[in-house]
Amino acid sequence: MLIGTLFALAAGLMWGLVFVGPLLLPDYPAAFLSFGRYVAFGLIALPLAWMDRRRLAELERADWLEAARLGLVGNVMYYLFLASAIQRAGGPLPTMIIGTLPVVIAVCSNNRDARRDGRLPWSRLAPSLLLIAAGIGCVNQVELQAMRAQPHADAARYAVGALLAVGAVACWTWYPIRNADWLRDHPGRSPRAWATAQGLATLPIALLGYLASLAWVAVAPAHAGGDFELPLGPRPWVYVGLMAAIGLLASWLGTLCWNEASQRLPTTLVGQLIVFETLSALAYAYALRGQWPEVLTLAGIALLVVGVAWALRARPEPLAAEGHAG
Predict the structure, then answer these.
(1) What is residue 324's predicted lDDT score, i.e. its pLDDT?
(2) Where are the domains of the chain?
């Protein structure tokens, strides 16, 4: 339990970096951020694949198709939604919407995976979910007040950003549940090799997407601000460096840590540990702003941490034991 929690914490610390990318490169279309990140992830995976070639050779055609599906939905589509949301609504609002993932995943997986992982009684799960929801609500309240104070705030743009963030939540509700299914069904397989396999399977998808984005900007440059320099944009070295850093730390190493956590923890609990990503993203966002969180924000963060700690105290009960007790 402790080792799995530490792996989930490490994944959250690295995944929080993906919220910073769109803020550092606001002049880049979201498609370039998403496809560029996963081209970098795939290229990083190539030498790693040579190291894991024996384990990768054990994967069958169905495994590679599953890795491609996970890469498309959990990687490319998720970050396309998220980057678009951040560019329209700023960092805090999408971060808070993504912060509902622990609640959404826990609710979705508690019944779905009960036979495999056991079921957490709702009476034990509810307090942690309520604490997490309350913490997210506190932080969100502060950020909404800050948004309303902006003289040129565009409500419609914020609303579109919120909807795009909901799309990101849908993608990343599906991904960890489906990824955990494969890992738990293949306990002898290497989580590192599976992370590398997802990078390899995502590479051709990301390359095609990047080429399509180049063609889209070339045909309709107004969609990229009118003066977007092809093929790497107005700040090529910053773009390439940031994509490489996010590709290595967030995509490959973060996925590796998450796979290690998923093999050790029930899906209902590991889903709640995604809260570490929210906390990391908030910390990075405030560091980028150069300011400390407000008191209500700190209270919300404390509620999130207490909610996670409460969840880790609960233990799933086998269905047979539940039935016998009834």
Answers:
(1) 41
(2) 2-325
Q: How many CB atoms lie within 10 A of CB 53?
A: 11
Q: Is the model more confident about 97 or about 269? A: 97
pLDDT confidence of residue 236: 92
Which of 291-324 are b and which e, b meaning 16 or more Cβ less than 10 Å from the residue's Cβ? Answer: eebbeebebbbebbbbbbebbbebebeeeeeeee
Q: What is the pLDDT of residues 94-151, one digit of tens each?
A: 887 887 777 777 778 776 665 666 666 777 778 888 888 888 888 778 877 877 777 7
pLDDT band at 224 (very low <50, low <70, confident <90, very high): low
Q: How far apart are CA 317 and CA 127, in angstroms?
A: 17
Residue with tokens 């994944």: 11
Residue 162 neighbours by CB under 8 Å, 6+ apart: 85, 89, 93, 94, 97
Comparison of pLDDT for 203 and 312, the residue scoring more: 203
CA–CA dist 311, 232 (Å, integer): 44
CA torsion angle for 113, 252, 11, 312 (degrees, to 10)?
A: 20
Q: Is residue 191 exposed (0-12), middle (13-18) or buried (19+ Cβ within 10 Å)? A: buried
285, 142 contact by CB (below 8 A): no
**Residue appearing with tokens 């792996």:** 7
Cα–Cα distance for residue pair 120/319, rounded to 1 Å: 10
